[in-house]
Structures are given as structure tokens and as C-alpha cells.
Amino acid sequence: MFTPRKKNTPLRATDPQAQREAELYQTPLPSRELVLQLLSDQGVPLSADQIYLLLDISHDERDNFNRRLGAMERDGQLMRNRKGAFCLPDKIHLIAGTVFGHTDGFGFLQPDDKSKHPEDIFLGPKEMTMVMHGDRAMVRLAGLDRRGRPEGKLVEVLERANKTLVGRVIRAQGVTIVAAEDKRISQDILIPYHLDMDAQVGQVVTIELTEYPSSHSRPMGKVVEILGNYADSGMEIEIALRKHHLPHQFNPAAVKQAEDFPRTVQPKDYKGRKDLRDLALITIDGETARDFDDAVFAEPQGKGWRLVVAIADVSFYVQPGDALDKEAFDRGNSVYFPRRVIPMLPEALSNGLCSLNPEVERLCMVCDMQIDGQGVVKQYQFYPSVMLSKARMTYTKVSALLHEEDPALTAEYQWLLPHLNNLNGVFKLMLTQREKRGAVEFESTETMMVFNDNGKIDKIVPVVRNDAHKLIEECMLAANVCAADFLLQNEQTCLYRIHEGPTPEKLEALRLFMGEFGFGVGGGEKPQAKDYAKLMQRIKSRPDAQLLQTVMLRSMQQAVYSPDNVGHFGLAYDAYTHFTSPIRRYPDLLVHRAIKAVVEGQRYQAKDWHQLGTHCSMTERRADDATRDVTNWLKCFYMQDKVGEVFAGTVAGVTSFGLFVALDEVYVEGLLHVTDLGNDYFIHDKARHEMVGERTGVRYRLGDRLTVKVVRVDLETARIDFTLAGKAEASGEDTETDTVAEAGTSNLKRSQISEARARPASPYSAGSKAGKAAGSKGSSQPRSTAASASSSKDGAGKPRTAKEKNRRSVQKNKGKPKAKAR
Fold it and tell me: Which pTM value belongs to this model?
């Protein structure tokens, strides 16, 4: 029985988050924390009426408070029992989380609270028939699966993630179904005959789900859009946009708001701004860039330099809560596909008023820095300004001018050379400081896709980063660091770009691996970036440097956005944020608003900074996943006519079901399945990044040089399969390795480039979906078998053909190899 509140103890007045609620809402309600505290203190389930009474919820407040309770249910903080009373999930031994599906029909629930439940919970195929990838659900632990992992039983679906899906039409025996393009959704969607819009078999369609899967029924839907045929030009992008739920059509209100602005800066907008129109600010970007959000200028000042970084003042046009702001928040960032950009802001702003085009006045926010003779920023100042870019330069032109490679170009830009030399002088000093700081610098090769007139890849070529790229990168890094320091010193909350050091588990694995090569990782339990940098210096001249570098890179965590500043490990900064790209990154726009508020003597309040950080980190990962899907498909299309050809390559990934091999000349990656490694049982040693033959001792390791033949290219699954044509060399002391990096058009720009190198490497192959395979121990084949030495979720890839399925079925009853950890 619940305990009524005494008259002299107003529980609502003791709300620990009362001030936050008052700042966020005009009519503040009891916080979620207070509701949870109430249920915990009472120790029994409570009905809604009982909660109203205990928290003094008036009749006028009940509708809004019910919405809060509903949101807490969806987030897994509360649950209703059969009598409709609210319970704490922990009290009834339930775990809330997000479902992650797998192509083989099983899945995992990733718990919301990793501190209480650090392991993901396995969901068998039976449980997965009632949920889809991305759904939020509540499960109860039901023991351990055959691999010793916690297994769960579905109790309730909290929230459905998929309102629409993109897939291909299949028709059999008069029944129309749609197979989702996202293979993590294993259920086919039934389409009633009168709701199929006469879509033809094989066409790509968008469907709206009308019924979700349950224990008694299959999901159903209706066709709402016919995109076209699978091989149509640009279809890979249309599919990726819908598969990853990327907003790609602007709200009419946002477009109207952007187009209603005058096309040029108005004199009235100059008020309160410093006039920099006479300063020789220039933009330096790639040849194909259309939006220019930063301009730079440098000049000698005393014994040091003055460096000015001007960034488009997007916050002047995009105000909190307006239509443009809501659109920018939903998108989170611009997405750069090969040959197509999905901008964060409408074109009237992204390529117009907020783009620092040459010889036109633009509003900007300026970071004005004083740098001493050692390359250290001694002072800085932020202020709003109006500027006029003097030139739109490219990296190629600037590099040629700095190295005097083209006399005609030098003559054309003679007036600009002194300014470029000033920038170069500042860059050289800052580069020295970067080395002293110990920022981690991984060597990599970026690539670019060259397309033919039909919109398909003609070739993939490496892109060389010249000094102009690095010059702009250092200028942007300096401005970002000043922005973080400015907000930190003024105690203004914002989103920092944080990058934590390696986890204890990854650090232990790295030390074990490096120890085999006679190297140690300094820094004790908490190594710093300079410890990694010192190790990089020691290994960079070795023939196996690429192997060691890759393992180091994969030991790091992913950079994210958060209001809690913990520094940036890879860049070796105590505080770092993103200030330099508000046209295409929402966190930068928030930072601009925060800086402006401080400059004006005010405070910038956002509703929930932690939620903003989580959202912006999600939209960044979403964009990366979508661009990876597109580049993988394009590379598959490119490799179609190369089946049967032989290539040299480097082992770029080792899993329990095979090796991912990156080809040298074409910068494409595919899978060399374990069945093609030799007539042996192969043991996957995750810690050593290798596969070892149990009988023969044949060893395949990350960084090995192999010769492979292309045997299969599957456009439907975006996978490329290889077979072994020869082993060039084994990894080790005498190995000669090439630097092979992710193929495809980079979605990174400016200050993200160096930061990206501090991120863990992710599968970038056409077979990356297989790289995320989970659940099975390994394939048991007559020719060869993999046995995993770890308890990770990596497992054998899905059988590609019926013949392969039969082989697995026959072998299933034979003796299985025991797993070995080497």
C-alpha cells in the first residue's frame, strides 16, 4: 500500500531538478527524477491517480504530465503492469534498450544503462519476429545462450523505430511482398494487392508500415512511393537516404524563410560589427566545393603573427526555434555523397548568404589570434564582423603557388603571394607545436571516385594531401581550440568535441600485441596522445608499420559531442570544440550562439545539452553509414566487369569468417572467406588479428600481402568475394606492406581530417555488412573452418547460396573444432 504525503512535507517542493524545469518550461512539472524517486521511495507500483495525489498534480496539469509519463514509458524508465499501475523496470527485473538486428534473423538488445548491464543481450530468431531493427524494447533475462552470453525474452515493445521502409518488390503465387534494403530487418513486408500502386517486380519502393510484427502476425504495409529500377542512375543514393532515414526534403516553411532574406547583406546588418572588408581574407577549398564557410588571413605582428579566421555567421540568420533551426537540428549535418550533397541548410543560405563567396560582402564571426614566435596562441578575441573575400582559392593552386610550380599561375596571383607566404609561415610554426604537443598522426591515403557520363565510377584515384590542406587544417584547429577555451573560461555550457583514450580492455590488447614486436605503450593505465605519438615515431620506418599503425588506430574510441569536457585524446587538446563549419554542422551553430551570448554579456540556454550531444553524434554516424552504403554499392558496380581478374592487396581486416582484403590499384575491399584459405581448421585470434591453421600452422595476419582473384560481385548485398590466388608475404619483421585506406569520397573536411585519424577504423569495404556479422561460432565447411578465440559478436557470414547452406547443414553433424586462444 502506498504512503500518502503528509500536509507539512510538500514532495513537489523538494524536486532536485526544479530549477531546470523552470528554465525549460513556462509551467514547470515534476521532473522525471522526482517521479522515479517517488516510485522508489514508495516501494510499490502506483496508479496515475496516486501519483497525481502525491505530487500535487492539478487537473489543468494532468494532460501535460500524462505526456511526460508516456515519454518515460517509451524511454524505458517506467512500465505499466496488468492493472495499469506504474512500476520501476528494475524492480520487476526488466531491462530497456535498443534492438539491433542481424541479417541471419537473430539480434541483440543494447541496454540503455551500460553501468548496470554492460553486455548486450542476445535475442533469438523467435524474439526477433516481434521486433525490428532500431525498435526500443523491454526484455527479461532468460539465462545464457550456447556461447555463454546473456539471452533475453521480449516483454514489451516500447517504441517502433520504423514508420517507413525502402525495399524491392517481390511477387510469388499472387502475393506481393517487399524485402527491406536494410538487411538487419529480416521480415518481409506483406502488401495487400490494392495498396501496391501497381509496382512491378524488382522495382524499388518506399512503403509505410500499417501493421507491425507480433507473435501472431507478419508486418504489413502499403506502397507510398515508387523510386524506380534498381540499376537506375542515382538510385543507390535514393535508397541510402530512405534506408537511414536521412531528411532530404526541406520543409516549405524553412525554404520560404531562407528565400525571404535579401540576396545581399544590408547596411542595417553592420550594426555592432567590426569592418574587415579591406582585410585580404581568402577562402581555400577543394575544386568541387560550393559552400565556403571559412576565410583566413595572416600578417606579421611584433615578433610573432596575427592570424584571423573568419567563419560565416549562420547564427544571424538561423534563430533558435525557427523553421530553419528545426530543419538544421533534424539533419544535424550536411551529407556528402559522391556527386550529390544533402545540405543542412537550404541553398539560399548554404550557397548564398552564408557562403563566403569572392567579392561579395558577408557577415561573419571572427577568431582573431596573436601567435608568438614559437607558434603558441598567446591571445585571442571573438567578435562579429562584416568581410569581403578577396579570392576563392583551391588547395591545388595554393600548393603550386607556395612551391612556385607554375610560372603563369604565379604571375596571375602575384598580389596574393605575400599573404600566402604569411599564412605558410604561421602554419610552419603551428606544425612545430603540434609535434611538441604529441598529437597522433596516422598515415593514410584518401581516395576520390572519378565518374563517367553515365554516373558510374570510371576509376578510383588517390588524393594527395598537400601543404595547403594542412595549412587550412591547422588554422581551423587553432580557432576551434580558442572557441573551446573561451567558452570554458566563461563557464558557458556548449558541446565539446571529445575523444577519450583507449578503454582498459583495448589498452591491454594493444600492449599484448605490441609486446610481440618488442614495443611497449607508455603512460601506464592512462596513456596520453604523446605516448602514442612516440610509439608511431619508433615504428614508422619499419616494413610492418602499416600493421602496427592499424592496430593502434583500432584501440581508440570514437569522437563524439558532449557538454562534459574530457579533452581530445587524438589531437592532444585539453579542450576542443567545433566552431568552423556552422553551414554544415549543427554543433558549430550552437557554439556560435554560445560565443555570441558571452560576447554580448548574456548566457545561451539550450533545453538539454546532453540530449543535443547524443543527437548530433547520432546524425554524424548516420551520415557516415549512408555514405558508406553508397560508396560500397558504387564500388561493386565498378568491379562487375573485373570478375576473374587477379589483384595484389593487403589484409585490412581479420574476422572469424574470413579476411577483408583491400586491393592495391583499385582501392576496393572485399571478403576472402575462410573456406578459401586452405584445407584446414582455422582459428581466429582476435587479440593478435590473425587466422591460424590448426593442422598446417598457416598464418594470415592483418597487414599480410596477398594475391586474390575476384570471383563474385553481388549488387544486391553490395559484397565482393575473392578467392586466394597466392600469398605474397606473411606479416612480421620482414613484411613489406602498403598503405591502404578507405576508398570513396571523404565526408570529412578541414579540422575533421586530423581528428578522423584519431577515430577507430570501421569496415569500409563493399562487404562491410558481413564485417558486422554476429552470433554464430564460425562456418563448418568440408574444406576449412574458423573457430573464434573470443566471445565477441562476430560470427560467420550468411550463406551466400543454397549450395553453401547445404554444405553447412551436412557438416553441422560432424565434429566441430575446439576454439583456441593463442
Answer: 0.79
